[in-house]
Specification:
about 800 residues; mainly beta; 31-stranded antiparallel beta sheet; 15-stranded antiparallel beta sheet; 1 helix; about 55% strand; globular
Length: about 800
């Protein structure tokens, strides 16, 4: 077939076979390159991008002949006539124009490009003077997304309706890498194809779906949106699934487009063993923002594995309790008008803590606002931000709903105990602000920060929120949750100096003051509620000395020793101050040299501190490199306030941060990329005995054109006390695909919980993928502890078609 010279724009389905061509007078000319400019009617003198006036035509041909009103231009052999007019280009073996009838026609290897860049090919092409009717024989075009459309004949019946007869449409390549014809993997063959630009749809009659050239499915009528349409009403690809609790499920999404800025998505989930679940989504885009509201509803009893006989064995796939309404709502909006202010909100709630798991709700935990609820926590928030080049201000209020499990039942996941919502604080408001002056201060950068927050907690929570000295030794049932309010101000100054030898010196100073108000503390002797104030002043110096050495003609070694010296007033960690925003600390290369290594304000370090580290980086040709960092810090005094009670033994304290003793954990971090096909990285913290406290590593590799694999490992051994509440973990995750023969291959993925010696999730599937059609059929097992229906296993099918989408939306 004729090779496409230029990929058309997606709007190419508007088959304007000679759009923009006006009736012009051609003069009989002969020669190898001829041009004729006809006078513009009405005195039009505008010149287009091609240098021609609107009624001018440039012709390049071997010969031109005029016979009465018919002008014919012809080129012999492999040469073709070239005609340019109104920024359009026509190439053909022969081009003729009837001045009396206003009909233009072209024959032999016709190629027409309109001003928009759309290209069509034909063996014969013609249209009338009004350009509202036209015809083509052996019509073919290709879209910018790789799809192709061919027909025996094409007729433009009006300005908005095109009809193709005996047509074939395929989203797949029709030529191999060498340009030879190939049978497309997926194609639709139809007796008639009509494109209605008013409806913005492509309509098929007697459509036959082909896979590898073999007919597999027939429909007397079929339609899909015009490829120029971003969204159009209609059914999307259904999503089949299987779960031992629900049985076989089929989700059938239907998209209803209200306007270019608004649509609805109706997606009912039909199940063989339980009542259907109706999913609904509404999206609306405004001039300066977007709102998305998503929800689901069903009316049924709960279902899963339950120990109904109290014999220690779970009965499978049983339903219990009374029928009731069960639902979820996930909504968010974000508005960014002109100016420095923007604002938004999220509303996230669910009636049952396991509803997302029971019905396999798609991607319920999303980051759509200023703050993120984290995995298995929903957040409802209202926030506003103001940002300029030198200042930032945010004001927010939010509440959380937890779906996390606090105690896993030994018999069945359906009896797991979940975290109470009252154990999580309601935040209102939380204010964060910073400001920097326009110019340097004392030759350096000055940054002022401010923060204020009010936290209200309904249920009593001990460690790690309350410090050990405030936690009662006896049962705490019935105690109220601790409420707190805080106002903080901070000024930070830093200056960068580089010596003639290349040593980087960064002196810094930091001053901070906090004011707390705490209520509802446990009734312990000597513990009084009230106003708590504290302050801190710090000064220090960062030193960095990069050393560079050429290791060969294509290799470099960079050695970067780093040192931080800091002196601060003694830390004032009043035991009455709850630890709300500093519970988690990831000690790594970047946080090791921060002035405040704890996130938030509730925890901070004091005294004299020295941090040391070295990074070595080897770089060689082809973008390959390897890097290794080793470091730790030393403090003048230990800080026992960083210790927290072990969940399974509250009388025993442990150090989850690695900063409680005078010496911190060792930080080891590295990455390597020996080729563009292999990449890996790792991070670990080790205590003084060399035991790993936390570690994470990953390796990505690919070979051939499409074979790839990823393996990652993560471990946490910070809690030394074993028990049901111990949060230590150890996981290995793997995924990969390997093509065995042509486009056929296998995919494997899984997550192994080494702490419990169980594979929590696993999949293995047979794969076919030719870059336009991907099909997977395989076996899947889900054995996570949160699933109320227990382990789920069965066959799954995934299908993705180029242009038409896949089993998801």
């Amino acid at each position: 077939m004729q090779r496409v010279r230029r990929a058309p724009d997606l709007g190419a389905l508007r088959y304007r076979l000679l759009s923009g061509v006006a009736a012009v007078a051609w003069t009989c000319l002969a020669g190898s390159a001829l041009a004729q400019v006809a006078p513009a009617a009405g005195g039009t003198t505008g010149v287009g991008a091609d240098g021609l006036t609107p009624d001018a035509v440039y012709i390049e041909a071997d010969s031109t002949v005029r016979n009465g009103d018919v002008i014919t231009a012809d080129s012999a052999g492999a040469d073709r006539v070239l005609a340019r007019f109104r920024n359009a280009t026509l190439r053909a073996g022969t081009v003729s124009y009837d001045l009396g009838l206003g009909i233009a026609s072209a024959n032999r290897q016709v190629e027409f490009s309109d001003p928009a860049g759309n290209v069509v090919f034909a063996s014969h092409l013609e249209l009338d003077a009004d350009l509202k009717a036209g015809a083509a024989v052996d019509f073919a075009t290709r879209f910018s997304n790789g799809a192709s459309l061919m027909a025996a004949t094409a007729v433009r019946r009006s300005e908005n309706v095109n009809q193709l007869n005996y047509a074939l449409f395929t989203p797949c390549p029709i030529c191999d890498a060498e340009g030879n014809p190939k049978v497309p993997s997926i194609a639709i063959q139809a007796e008639t194809v009509v494109q209605d630009e008013d409806l913005r749809a492509v309509l098929y009659r007697n459509a036959v779906f082909q896979v590898g050239g073999v007919p597999v499915f027939y429909l007397p009528a079929f339609a899909h949106p015009d490829p120029t349409v971003e969204r159009a009403s209609g059914f999307l690809v259904p999503t089949p699934s299987y779960d031992e609790g629900r049985g076989v499920s089929l989700e059938i999404p239907y998209l209803r487009v209200i306007s270019p800025s608004e649509d609805w998505l109706f997606s009912p989930q039909f199940n063989t063993d339980v009542a259907p679940l109706m999913n609904l989504q509404w999206r609306r885009r405004f001039v300066d923002g977007t709102v998305v509201a998503r929800g689901g509803y069903t009316y049924d009893r709960s279902f899963g594995d339950f120990d109904l006989d109290n014999d220690g064995d779970a009965e499978s796939n049983v339903k219990y309790g009374d029928r009731t309404s069960r639902s979820y709502f996930l909504g968010h909006g974000r508005f960014d008008p002109q100016g420095p202010w923007r604002w938004g909100f999220t509303i996230e709630r669910v009636s049952d803590k396991t509803l997302f798991d029971r019905y396999d709700i798609r991607d319920p935990y999303q980051d759509n606002g200023l703050y993120y609820g984290d995995q298995r926590r929903l957040i409802s928030q209202l926030y506003a931000e103001r940002q300029t080049a030198r200042s930032y201000l945010s004001v927010a209020a939010f509440g959380l709903q937890s779906l996390r499990v606090t105690r896993f039942d030994a018999v069945t996941p359906a009896l797991n105990e979940f975290e109470a919502d009252g154990a999580l604080p309601v935040v209102g408001p939380l204010v964060e602000a910073r400001w920097e002056p326009a110019g340097p201060v004392l030759g350096g950068r000055l940054r002022l920060r401010g923060s204020a927050v009010a936290l209200f907690r309904g249920d009593y929570v001990g460690g790690p929120v309350l410090r050990p000295a405030i936690i009662p030794a006896v049962a705490s049932a019935g105690l109220p949750g601790v409420d707190s309010r805080r106002i903080s101000g901070q000024a930070e100054w830093r200056r960068t100096l580089i010596s003639p030898l290349g040593v980087r010196w960064e002196p810094f100073a930091d001053v901070r003051a906090d004011l707390y108000s705490v209520e509802d503390l446990p009734p312990l002797p000597g513990v009084e509620e009230g106003i708590i104030s504290r302050g801190r002043a710090m000064a220090g110096l960062d030193i960095n000395y990069p050393l560079f050495r050429r290791m060969g003609p294509e290799a470099d070694l960079i050695l970067e020793p780093m040192l931080q010296l800091s002196a601060s007033t003694a830390s004032d960690l009043d035991p009455r101050i709850p630890v709300e925003d500093s519970q988690t600390l990831e000690l790594d290369e970047s946080s090791l040299f921060r002035t405040d290594r704890f996130p938030g304000y509730d925890q901070y370090e004091g005294g004299f501190r020295v941090s040391l580290g070295t990074r070595a980086t080897l770089r060689w040709a082809g973008g390959r490199q390897a890097s290794l960092f080793i470091g730790r810090s030393y403090r003048s005094q230990a800080e026992p306030a960083f210790l927290t009670p072990a969940p399974d033994m509250p009388g025993r304290l442990y150090d989850p941060t690695g900063l409680a003793s005078r010496t911190s954990d060792w930080v080891v971090q590295g990455s390597f990329s020996p080729s563009d096909r292999i990449r890996g990285w790792g991070h670990a913290t080790l205590d003084d005995s060399g035991e790993v406290r936390r570690a994470e590593t990953a390796l990505d590799g690919r070979w051939g054109r499409r074979n790839l694999a990823t393996v990652s490992y993560i471990i946490d051994r910070s809690n030394p006390v074993a028990g049901p509440l111990n949060r230590n973990y150890e996981f290995v995750q793997f995924s990969g695909q390997q093509f065995v023969y042509g486009n056929w291959g296998v995919t494997v993925s899984g997550i192994a919980d080494l702490e419990r010696d169980i594979i929590t999730r696993s999949e293995v599937a047979l794969l076919f993928d030719d870059d336009c059609f991907r099909f997977e059929i395989g076996f899947r097992r889900d054995n996570t502890r949160v699933r109320p229906t227990g382990p789920s296993e069965g066959v799954f099918v995934r299908l993705n078609l180029a242009t038409f989408g896949g089993t998801g939306y």
